[in-house]
Amino acid sequence: MELFVICETRDVQEEEVRGFTLARLDDAGAVRPWPILVTRKGGKYFGYENACPHEGTRLDTRPGEFMDEEGNFIACGKHGAMFDLDSGHCFIGPCQGKALVPLALIVDDGDLCLADPRLTDEDGLDIPDPGEHPEVLITPD
Q1: Nearest-CA neighbor of 125 among 3, 4, 8?
Q2: Of the candidates 60, 25, 56, the residue with the CA atom closest to the CA atom of residue 134
């Protein structure tokens, strides 16, 4: 299976959350935006789908703003739910007890990567307002 590079490991600092919009094929074979987020805690990297388990909406109501006011947890901008960085587990909010959908990140020669058969190059991704998705980035390794 082909690895797709999301970013370099140095692009995600300790206890920081970065959002990316990848290109993914849906069941009909159409290219769709797939928002994800990547974080780092204790030197380990964690990835999640950028979707609140409460209603499936993006966590960042303002693009790129994922953290609570204190900068300790991932926060849903719409519902106020709070999630642990390293587990994606919700401990406050309407989806308490649920968790973000995890991604199996692969560190490969200084790059953070994903291996998913439905990922594709972003060439087919038609995003009308690039400011809405500030970090469209995915390339095959």
Answers
A1: 4
A2: 60
